[in-house]
Design brief:
The protein is mainly alpha-helical. It folds into 2 domains: 40 residues; 215 residues, Orthogonal Bundle (MetI-like fold), CATH 1.10.3720. It contains 14 helices and 2 strands, in the order ααααααααααααββαα. It has a two-stranded antiparallel sheet with strand order 1-2. Helix 4 runs antiparallel to helix 10, helix 7 packs antiparallel against helix 10 and helix 7 packs across helix 14. It is flat, with a radius of gyration of 25 Å.
């Protein structure tokens, strides 16, 4: 040992491990601060006046005037209601349609066994489809059926784009469930609907919750379809925030205040369900 006792060697090892953990923690905190700084600066800029927001500065005299102006705007309330409508019904309908589809792909009896894999691949490839690729035919059909500038037209588009996400995530959880449970339930007289609602959904609730959260956040943040398929009465909150960039200039403080208000629901919802979300995403990645 070179004259060192066992206690000295153990002490040296503990010191080295402590230094490694300390350096790792410092690196993680530095990355977290770097990543979170734009959000923090946006939050602080909402407490500035427009003149203060033009000149970047961390230290300033805060004011609630900008937040009061944004929150008192009745137009903002209308856009907020539109976003809540799209998020709630878009998420619910996507789950109602996507969960049975995933269940049918895993436990359904198709005429050809390879058809299940083909249908599942079709759902997966649909996720990669960018909205701009279908905007022109979608806009043409919406004009024909008078769905432009209607909340239900935008809702239909959101549901169509997000059902594949539900199928993709829930399918991986359903695939990991032991089929013996469903065979025993079938022998006991359970119908397919009962097997899905009483067995599959409760056992895969973590994946379903993760899928619901992702769909809700995606719809809440979506801008492209909301901007092109709606007008002022039916547009969503991201479209409202684009109004602060006008010909007479950019209203930076109001934009930061409205952006902070718009990200708060997603942040709070993600914080409340972070354990289920992480568990669902990790488990889904491994199982899929």
């Amino acid at each position: 040992m070179g004259g060192k006792s066992i206690a000295d060697v153990q002490r040296t090892i503990r010191v080295r491990n402590f230094i490694k953990k300390l350096l790792l923690a410092l690196v993680i905190y530095a990355i977290a601060i770097l990543y979170f700084f734009p959000i923090l600066y946006m939050f602080l800029s909402g407490f500035k006046t427009e003149q203060q927001a033009v000149m970047p500065a961390i230290f300033f005299k805060p004011t609630l005037a900008t937040y009061r102006k944004v929150l008192s705007d009745p137009t903002m309330h209308q856009y907020l209601r539109n976003s809540l409508f799209q998020v709630f019904f878009g998420t619910v309908i996507s789950l109602v349609l996507g969960i049975p589809a995933a269940f049918a792909l895993v436990f359904g009896h198709l005429k050809k066994k390879e058809s299940s894999g083909k249908y599942y691949l079709w759902f997966i490839t649909t996720i990669l489809l960018p909205p701009v690729a279908v905007l022109i035919p979608l806009f043409t059909w919406y004009q024909r059926f008078r769905l432009i500038n209607t909340p239900y037209g935008l809702l239909a588009a959101y549901v169509g784009f997000h059902i594949p996400i539900v199928v993709w995530m829930v399918h991986s959880f359903f695939s990991d469930l032991p089929k013996e449970i469903f065979e025993a339930a079938e022998i006991d007289g359970c119908t397919k609907f009962q097997r899905m609602t009483r067995i599959a959904i409760p056992l895969a609730r973590t994946g379903i919750l993760s899928a619901a959260l992702l769909v809700a956040v995606f719809i809440w943040n979506e801008f492209f379809l909301g901007f092109n398929l709606t007008g002022n009465p039916t547009a969503t909150l991201p479209v409202y925030m684009s109004r602060f960039r006008e010909q007479q200039g950019q209203f930076v403080a109001q934009l930061c205040a409205s952006s902070t208000i718009s990200v708060l629901p997603a942040v709070i919802l993600g914080w409340m369900t972070q354990k289920a979300l992480v568990k669902g995403l990790v488990a889904g990645a491994v199982k899929g």
